[in-house]
Amino acid sequence: MSEFTYKAVDLKNKEVKGACQARSLQEAENLIRQMGLYPVQVNKKVEKKGLSLSKKIKKRDILSFTIQLQLMLSAGLPIIRAFSNIADQEKNPKFKAIITDIAKKIEASGSLGESISAYPQVFPPFYIGAIRAGESGGHLTEILEELVVSIEKQEELESSLKQAMIYPMLIMTVMSGVAGFYAFYLMPKLMELVKELGAPLPLLTRIIMTGTGLIRGMWLPFILLFIVGGIGLFFYSKTDSGKYSLSFAKLRFPLFGPVVQKTVLAKFSHYLSLLLRTGFGLLPSLDLVKGTIGNASIVRAIETIQERVTRGESLSDSMKGLPFPPFMVSMVALGEENGTVDKQLLKVNEYFEKDVERATKRVLTMLEPLILVGFGGFAALILLSTFMPLYKAIGSIK
Fold first, then answer.
1. Which distant-in-sequence residues (6+ apart) come within 8 Å of 85 by Cβ?
2. What are 334-365's pLDDT values in tens digits?
3. Is residue 114 located within the same domain as residue 188?
4. Edge to edge, what strands does the sheet with 38-44 contain?
5. What is the pLDDT of residues 357-391, one digit of tens each?
6. By residue range, what is the domain housing residue 95?
7. Residue 134 counted as domain residue
8. 160 and 88 share a domain?
9. Same structural domain, 245 and 319
10. Measured by CB atoms within 10 angstroms of the end CB, which terminus of the chain is less buried, N or C?
11. How far does Cα 92 stand from its chain's mean position?
12. Which residues pair with 38 in a beta bridge?
């Protein structure tokens, strides 16, 4: 007998969490239904045997694993042998140990979905759900291929956003370094020379020197304030209200907010489409997507959708008044009329992915001149306030 943890809903659509003892995942789900509950997520409790689940297992590792498993199963290789081959080639020792342990669990239970559900820290909810649906429907290799495409697309989207931010961040770093060098090191030395020559300092120069002197004299309190603020923000981000507030702020942040929102909506439409195609019902699919989306504000919106769908509303009507654009609601409504919600969501995902690229380019086009004008203007102001009094002081020497 193994222990399973579950998340379910009762007849009044209230969320219920608990644990039960069962021989298999299927038996655990049957027990939950016998209690008058609808199982949403059931996971075998992880046995702690000194196996460390490090965050160093990256999405790229999961992608490589999925590609290899799909190719081997498509070639007709038995699943245990496929896992053995993958484990032999895996370079990450922690992930190798997990793959080996999953193979042992498959030998004992005969189920890949049940075995990987023991590692929810490694495999995201939508991944486990898709595998379980593929197994029960007898099309595991096709689902693995879908997962490969899914992970690759998300990797490319996140990678393009990171790469797009490298250049403006580099400009900001370099220009901040140059401005700091002039303001905190070069300017005080040159102004000492100006004072020795007996020339008066202009008002602008005195203001800048007063500001830089205040920062130099109070650098320790500033650093402590920064550290304490960072720690406070970290703990606040772990609370429910903090997660929601910060996630909402990301969606409303100038310039970058729309890009973040479109990226999250691209994830939502893609994962929901994938799960609906694998045969999952709408409510279980929404619950799995909710655990993967990564933005508390959108998660709260998904919970509202779930409540409305449970009351009998359609998916498109449930999305109204929430942070989903009208065209997306219209596409879902069209899919509901034709019975092609998954296909319409896939089209929405393709639109958002392209729109994220366009929006990122627009933001960078606007951001680069702002950075150059802002930081360049600040650097120019410091240089002007430094060299003008020096020039006048030298010119006054007869």
1. 68, 72, 77
2. 999 999 999 999 999 989 988 888 888 888 78
3. no
4. 15-22, 2-9, 38-44
5. 888 888 878 877 887 787 778 777 877 787 777 77
6. 51-123
7. no
8. no
9. yes
10. C
11. 23
12. 9
